[in-house]
Predict the structure.
Amino acid sequence: MVLGSRPAHSMRLPPRPRPGPTALGAAGRTAPSLRVAAAYAWRLIVVGIVVYGVFTVLGRFQLVAVALFLALVVTSLLRPLADLLDRVLPRPLSVALALVGSLLFLFGLLALVGSAVAGESTKLAGEFRGGVHRIELWLTRPPFRISPGTLSSLQGQLVDYLNTHRSRLLSSAVSGLGRVVELVTGGVLALFSSLFFIHSGENLWAWARDQLLPSSARPGWDRAGHAAWRTFAGYTRGIIIVAATNAVLVGVVLLVLRVPLALPLTLLEFFATFVPLVGSPVALGVATVVALAGRGPLTALAVLTLIVVIGQLEGHVLHPLVLSWAVRLHPLVVAVSVISGTIVGGVIGAVVAVPLVSVVWSVLRALRTAPA
């Protein structure tokens, strides 16, 4: 400090005014978690609109969509057989042998079931009449204690309902004939489509990919298409194995217990297994009613025990062992998918829901994964 000079004063800058509420934008006042939730929300809304539109279009063309789905199922089952025959035979002949042989096997199985039912129709009618009488006696005893008059009244109400609504039932039967025509048409379309899918499905995919997608997007969607087909084919073959295992177990037990209509009930169990978590218990419930009418309460109780055992075996052994490599979905996702599919499309929606969700999930994973 020099003598005679004034003391130095420190210069302080005035404090910068803080922005008030009007200076902050809407983004500054919004919590980050809310911004992230809003960003995901509008994307989910768009996805929901797209999914709703897709299902609306498919609902308009339900017959075509179901036929193509069946064609893909047939292709996933018969393509390995056609490829095996292709080693020694021309490709068209191997495809024809695979399809015709499968149809002959299916028709032979249905004829066997029909002949078994027709051959025992008289015996079965007598057994069911006696079984209905046993059920009536069972209901009049503890713990139900339903009076015979109440049962007779219920039977009378049922007969009156049938007589009153006979015309409506007849119109329903006539409309059912129209549904049969639609089913035949869909079956022919499915068979016709599967013929081309088995013969040259990869060529059809390549043509659609090259016509609909730009060249830059083709590798990613090609990877997604292969992942979708692996998942769908794996699910179809896996559910066939699970259904066949369930049907064999149920058929053996029903034959041992001498339950009427054992062969048709076995076939019902096979097809019901295609509806996950729900189909098998419903089919075994029908078998329990038949056992109660034909063989009595003890046999029905044994079949009811079979429902629990088969359900545990299917849920904890067969599905994880057979389907885990093809479908990696949580059981909760499977349950929600089945219920949602049932609401949207009935039985067909319940059958299609799980493979559809599995394919969509595999496609998303394939598109998200960078190529090696």
